[in-house]
Amino acid sequence: MIDRVVTKADLLESIDRLAAETMVAAPVADGNQLRFEHIRSADDIAAHYVPTALPPSKYLLPTRETLLHFDWHEDISVTPHFESPETIAFGVRPCDLHALALLDRIFVDDKEDGHYQARRGDLLLVGVECLTPCDEHCFCESMKTLEAETGYDVLLTDLGDSYYVRVGTAKGKEFVLGVSGAREAVYEDRTSLRRAHTSRAAAFTPKLDVTYEQLPALLADSSDSLLWDVLGEKCLSCGACTNVCPTCYCFDVKDDVNLDLQSGERYRTWDSCQLHEFAMVGTGESFRQPRHMRVKHRFNRKGRYILERYQMQGCVGCGRCGRSCLVSIEPIEVFNQLKGHPVER
Amino acid sequence: MSTHTTTHSRLKPSPFLPDMAEIVRKDRLNATETLYQLRLSDSSELGHSPGQFVEVSVFGIGEAPFSISSSPTRGDTFDLCIRRVGDVTTAMERLGLGAKLGVRGPLGRGFPMETMRGRNVLIIAGGLGIVPLRSLIVNLIDERADFGDVTILYGCKNPADMLFKEEIAQWAARDDVDFRITADIAEPSWTGNVGPVTTLFRRLTVDPKTTVPVMVGPPVMFKHVVKQVLAAGIPEDRIILSLERRMKCGIGECGHCQINGVYVCQDGPVFTYAELKRLEEAML
Prior knowledge:
heterodimer; A: alpha+beta; 8-stranded mixed sheet; 12 strands; B: Rossmann fold; 15 strands
């Protein structure tokens, strides 16, 4: 599709207009934290930001999502529940676009999960390229998620007073054409984009001592590493890392009964493999009881299992887990230590 | 609100929408186990193969996974043998005949019937392992001519608590089934073998070329029995095991049943030893 250019002023005016008629979510500053939130006007959008505390995947897999309603006033009846709030997610970083593409691969292509599909269908993703690294926690360059080739409806690159706009879908085209003053990109614009990418390449350096394609083999070879015991001792098993991870999608399924005691709902809610109940069976036996096994499981899921199963990165290098970890367990350090010091048991 | 009527469609918009089933029979087997016989509300067959499982809903309480304990050769009802351990199983005990439950499934990969056809089948059951294996055993008996020798080794903790006593007596009485039993705890009235199920295996002559061992039991049983069947010369990809894990969603999404990179609900619960031996979390 044809690339375009919009001025920042025109785009923000368009966001203002859209925010009045549909749900627009964007990164909003709240003290030191950034959150994806509904905005009332473009003024609410944080200008510069590291990844939000929670990733935008919360719009596709909410913390609590109703799956079924049931009612036994007369005969038992069960009806599925679907929600598709019309949402525009503005300012999604490439790492998060990669994570959303993974969720699509799992919940749309592989599982045909109607609940996810209903939400996904009406979600418009407006990505914004990163031209400078966020902070010491992120390692998108190593995970090859700095560049978003697909997975967006629209992708913006900051060119100063204007945005270079790449259009990924028909929905994205409609969005861009709704911005007044949007024009087709010309040679000079493409030169500006190339220049932005050249200086970006100099700013981002790989932080891992391995490529992401080498992580499965590294993790498979590190199964007996003593590092897992060290991390198991350190980890508090709080589950913060999995709550903030854009590629974590594990959940629990539960029932609630309404006050009339004649109806209720089944819902799914976020769960964490870092909690010891997670792998517990009916008779009370937990199959991943030792904490070091749970830590090891998480890193294997991020670096190995998802990549092997879905051929997509299970970790997008956003750095959220390291940023939120109370005891500073950093994925960059973990992977590099496994590479540099393969500690044998 | 309306009840849905489809039964086996894989293209439901909600993978969590169950079919409705009724309890048509309920037998208390011992202090904690009850055998439920269910029939789908539209009277269609469940369409399972031995070794698969279903997710059962008691609406308002929750959903839990149970292995199917009856053979697909036995018509439009299916059996679930359930131990009362949690919310769903306790709620089920309070339900009477005709009560409605939600059922999702059959789910997962069952026993490889085609691998077994024409071969000798050696079944090794430990404790509650007899529950999913009953589905296979009855299927083998109902299609007896399709299989070679059928040998069943059953290890139970205490003969008094043994499940399916009458049925097991019938299996044992058959000429075309070699049934051997052992108990962990020897009561004065017990005249049979005492000791773990491995003691039964030791007295067995196994033809490694044509035998398919199928085992279901606690992790500790797997460890010892796998060693024995390997020593008998049976190749790793012909040793069949079924694992118990917590299947919440049953469709490879929720992550609860995952062992290393494998989803037990989707890739199993039945596996070959070759598939599991490198998986640390399989606990073999």
